[in-house]
Amino acid sequence: QVVCWPRSGEPFAAPPPEPPAPLPEVWDEWPPSVSPIGIESPGRTDEPWTLAGRRMVAIGGERTGLGEVWAHPYRVMRDTALEVGGRAPEVVSVRVAPDEIVRVLRVDQVELTERLSLAMDQAILFWEVVADAPVDLSLGWIGDLRRMWPYPAGTSRAIAVVTSEDGAGARLSLADEPGALEVRLVDGALT
């Protein structure tokens, strides 16, 4: 006998999550990794990489960038896309270290630096993209909150999304599960 939880068709009503708190006024750049362990490449092939903390894991490739993010037992991001002016940037170089992934990208004459890092003891992903000139930047992903094996796809229900009044933050949660995925922007707005 196979038993899935929660049972399909079971009604559940929960209040929507609270909107995220506003960002602090000061945002400090984080220093580059000091780890002596690292691999640098020109990013000509899509070699896979894994960035893991104790509560979260990010998986991707040198050319394709971030692919999936899991805050176990949920996949919180998949099919991520970074575009500049509606186009995918070209990879110039990649550095993979135990505590961060850094990709240098280019679109026309504009160079961008994409940095990914995880908080070691919390389920927090830092995804920073800095350009050397003003650009129309788009970060996209699907947040499906899929449960990991052995649960079949589609067992999560009732996803609630609340955005902050200033458009710089959003909170996504399952109505029947504790916790939430929060997205906060330093510059820009969620659309």
Keywords:
single chain, 191 residues, mainly beta, 6-stranded antiparallel beta sheet, 5-stranded antiparallel beta sheet, globular
User: How many DSSP helices?
Assistant: 0
What share of the residues lie within helices? Answer: under 10%
Mean pLDDT: 79
Report the order of strands and helices: EEEEEEEEEEEEEE
Strand composition percent: over 45%
Main sheet attributes: strand count, strand direction, barrel closure:
6 strands, antiparallel
Strand-pairing-aware structural class: mainly beta
Précis, in short:
This protein has 191 residues and is an all-beta fold. 0% of the residues lie in helices and 45% in strands. It has strands at residues 39-41, 48-52, 57-61, 65-71, 74-84, 90-97, 100-107, 110-118, 125-131, 137-142, 146-147, 159-163, 169-174, 181-184.
Question: What order do the helices and strands come in, and which of them pair?
Answer:
Layout: E1 39-41, E2 48-52, E3 57-61, E4 65-71, E5 74-84, E6 90-97, E7 100-107, E8 110-118, E9 125-131, E10 137-142, E11 146-147, E12 159-163, E13 169-174, E14 181-184
Antiparallel strand pairs: 1-6, 2-3, 3-4, 4-5, 5-10, 5-11, 6-7, 7-8, 8-9, 12-13, 13-14
